[in-house]
Write a structure and sequence with these properties.
Shape: globular
Radius of gyration: 17 Å
Largest sheet: 7 strands, mixed
Number of helices: 2
Helix content: 10-25%
Structural class: alpha/beta
């Protein structure tokens, strides 16, 4: 019981301090150090804008991850963000679901499920990513989408629930 309370206070304190840093380029990188007590681990050159809340322990992120303002990460299970992932503002990542309980209380036991966002994916503003979802490498999730299942690599999905709109071909590299 005491351990749970100490962990909850740690989460609250870290988020309170990190959210109050300004949104200048230095603070956006410095914010990752404030999240370190929450076992946040990331690659080189991350950018995390203000107002984000990491609710738990164990968020993982690759190199050059960009997380815009006011994103929420529920860490009942691990959330893993690949390298070069870009997340728009006000996105929510949920890793807890419930079994269906008896009629006296339909929300039964919590069942955690990890969320994985592979390298190069782009998640538009105000998206909801639900438990157990994997978003493929180079995929784009349109703004305002609710992702309920697997998103294949190199495609565009959008809507609520998110549906496949089209597949993407890599554009030729011009030099």
């Amino acid at each position: 019981m005491i351990r749970v309370t100490v962990r909850a206070i740690t989460v609250w304190m870290v988020n309170a301090v990190a959210a109050r840093l300004p949104d200048d380029p230095v603070s956006s990188r410095l914010r990752t150090w404030f999240y370190y007590p929450l076992q946040f681990r990331c690659g080189a050159k991350p950018t995390i804008k203000g107002g984000c809340r990491i609710n738990g322990f164990g968020l993982r992120a690759g190199r050059r991850v960009f997380i815009n303002r006011h994103c929420y990460f529920d860490l009942s299970a691990v959330i893993s963000l690949g390298s070069d992932v870009v997340i728009g503002h006000h996105c929510t990542f949920v890793t807890a679901d419930h079994t269906i309980g008896a009629s006296q209380r339909r929300a039964g036991h919590v069942t955690p499920a990890a969320v994985v966002v592979e390298d190069g994916a782009w998640i538009g503003a105000r998206c909801l990513i639900l438990p157990g979802v994997r978003i493929g490498q180079g995929a784009i999730v349109g703004a305002g989408s609710t992702v309920t299942r697997y998103v294949p690599p190199d495609c565009v999905v959008a809507g609520s629930p998110a549906r496949l709109l089209r597949r993407l071909d890599d554009p030729p590299v011009t030099g």
